[in-house]
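Lecture notes, unit on protein representations.

Consider one protein chain, 64 amino acids long.
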Amino acid sequence: MRHLAPTPEGGTLRVRAELTDVDDRAFTFAVAVLDGNILAGDGAIERFLVEHETFLQPVQQRRK
């Protein structure tokens, strides 16, 4: 993410995300943050699809 313009504290921002790529379990989104008509930030975010049970196994094992 790049910070492109200051925004006032307590203001309302609009965030727009567009899915731009899918590679197996990886999803890439182009993101824009708008303060009115001013582009306040932009960038790319990558997220991954995970198996819930497999993801939580290490946590559950630490609790034993």
